[in-house]
UniProtKB/TrEMBL annotation:
Keyword flag Ribosomal protein: yes
GO molecular function: structural constituent of ribosome
Pfam families: Ribosomal_L32p
The name this protein goes by in its record: Large ribosomal subunit protein bL32m
GO cellular component: mitochondrial large ribosomal subunit
Species of the source: Miscanthus lutarioriparius
Compartments in which it is found: Mitochondrion
Family: Belongs to the bacterial ribosomal protein bL32 family.
Keyword Ion transport: no
GO process terms (BP): translation
NCBIfam families: rpmF_bact
Alphabetical keyword list: Mitochondrion, Ribonucleoprotein, Ribosomal protein, Transit peptide
Length: 110
């Protein structure tokens, strides 16, 4: 009879739906098979116990050290004024000068 009392108390403590029926908990999930084993993205299925670890810096790199390392990568100033290859006049880069004619651009032969 002691088992019946325990069962009655467990049933009373169980949450119920508004219709009065007891709420049945969902069944526990099935254990994973070998094919469904947990796969970490990026490591592939064959990673297994030998995980590939990435390099991590031991200390933060200061702004000064970072500046020393990245200094040669800075943009260099470009020449603002260049000479035309054909006539030798001073012009801005990527601007039209004399259409490639040799000699004086003011002399136009028609």
């Amino acid at each position: 009879m002691a088992a019946a009392g325990w069962l009655r108390r467990a049933a009373a403590a169980m949450p119920r739906l508004p219709s009065g029926l007891p709420l049945i908990p969902p069944p526990p999930p099935a254990p994973l098979t070998e094919a469904q084993s947990l796969v970490v993205p990026g490591l592939g299925a064959a990673a297994g116990p030998a995980m590939e670890l990435m390099a991590v810096p031991k200390k933060k790199v200061s702004k000064y050290k970072k500046g020393l390392r990245n200094g040669p990568k800075a943009l260099k100033p470009v020449p603002v004024i260049v000479r035309c290859r054909c006539c030798g006049r001073v012009k801005l880069p990527h601007f039209y000068c004399c259409s490639g004619e040799r000699g004086n651009p003011s002399e136009s032969s028609s």
